[in-house]
Amino acid sequence: MLIHSNVCLALLLLLAILLFHATCLNTNQAHPIIANGREALEIIIGGGGGSYGSPLASPPSYYPFESKRIEIVYPVIQKFKQKITSDPYNITNTWVGPDICNNYKGFFCDTLLGDYNSVALAGVTFNGFNFDGPDLSLAGFIDELPDIIVFHANSNNFKGPFPSNISKIKYLYELDLSNNKYTCEFPHEILGSQLTFLDLRYNTFSGAVPPQVFTLDVDVLFINNNNFMQKLPDNLGSTPALYVTLANNRFTGPIPTSIGRAGKTLIEIILLNNGLSGCLPCEIGLLEKATVFDASRNYLTGRIPLSFTCLGMIEILDLADNQLYGHVPELVCELPNLVTLSLSYNYFTGIGPKCLELVEKNVLHLRMNCIPGLPDQRTRAQCRAFFSTAKGCPRSNWIPCSSGGVIRRNSLESSLDTNGISAVSVKLKSRAYAALNRRL
Ligand SMILES: *[C@@H]1O[C@H](CO)[C@@H](O)[C@H](O)[C@H]1NC(C)=O
Ligand SMILES: *[C@@H]1O[C@H](CO)[C@@H](O)[C@H](O)[C@H]1NC(C)=O
């Protein structure tokens, strides 16, 4: 009986794997990684450029298109239009005739300098159009729009394969496919691209994120709210991105120590609600540019490293709902730009006077910890149960910045007074937190 059910299980598993392969794998296996390097953009956004190049000879008057580059994309758009079976805002009604640049909703043109010196289709902006169709995919569309710089399609129903040559689109810098219907693996096809903005949030991508994602030359990397499931790649800190949101996936393992390598660039990172575990690496203290660090709702443990004293720009530090313990370092409570230090739902056992001041100002949140004398703490039994199991995080007194928080604070003549700045206002201007919204 037992053997029988194991065989069944194995068969089921096999079937599941076969199904996954049948539905998820597309035909191109090669994932060449092309050397990065942001080419000088030869396109002027917003017109201008009158002094560049020589003017084109004006086309014959009967020529219906604005340029040869527009003529090239006309049949591509018409072909794509056939794939749209649901268009609730009647957008495609405007996609008639040759005047793409002035009449077609969702497309914009600009002057392409360099190779052609003419008007070209520079962008696709389908945000919120909610297009649908059984074959609504990028393949056969984006790869045949050779001059586009941006492709923004938040809240549609794109799915299916990525074109194998998407990274050959010469000027494609921004790709936003957030809140679409993608399933299966991370699209390897984009790994050779020169994208500066990559937004794949709110799909159901699953499996692993290839480490090459963290060597893409992006400023923005939003892959939150998918089903990515893997140990965070060791090279996380290789990313040059300023804004990173990995929230609401199933990443596991520790925060890689490589995170410190992003110290000169990273401004906001959100790791919220994953399955991260292990100790907080001291290298987080190297994030001297960071204004937002949110690793709440994970299984992180250990003490707050003293290196956090070096987070001189930090405004929101959210470590709530983990398994952190120890004293909250006084120097962290003296960080000059703190607006919110959220440590609720952990196992901290003590705070000093500076931290107490922040509790009173509602900057430091410490609900549900093990701190005697503070309201809304865990029960003694809960605290005792937690501390009865061995915790293996080393203590580190390493402080990588020359001046700790106190000195820095005095020299900036900043105060702990958060007049006019609230967590809400910080979150409103935060690009990484904005990515937690489904629609843009
Ligand atoms: C789109 O067109 C259909 C039929 O022409 C019309 O009934 C509907 O109200 C239009 N929808 C919008 C959002 O304009
Ligand atoms: C990608 O491949 C398609 C199909 O072979 C081709 O039509 C298109 O021009 C290619 N696009 C780029 C950017 O190389």
TrEMBL record:
A Pfam match is LRR_1
* Residues making up the signal peptide according to the UniProt record: 1-24
Is Transmembrane helix among this UniProt entry's keywords? no
Origin superkingdom: Eukaryota
Is Nucleotide-binding there in the keyword field? no
Q: Where in the cell is it found?
A: Membrane; Secreted
* Entry GO CC: extracellular region; membrane
Q: Which UniProt keywords apply?
A: Glycoprotein, Leucine-rich repeat, Membrane, Repeat, Secreted, Signal
Q: What is its main location?
A: membrane
Note the PANTHER family from the entry. LEUCINE-RICH REPEAT EXTENSIN-LIKE PROTEIN 3-RELATED, LEUCINE-RICH REPEAT-CONTAINING N-TERMINAL PLANT-TYPE DOMAIN-CONTAINING PROTEIN
Name recorded for this polypeptide = Leucine-rich repeat-containing N-terminal plant-type domain-containing protein
Query: Source species, please?
Result: Erythranthe guttata
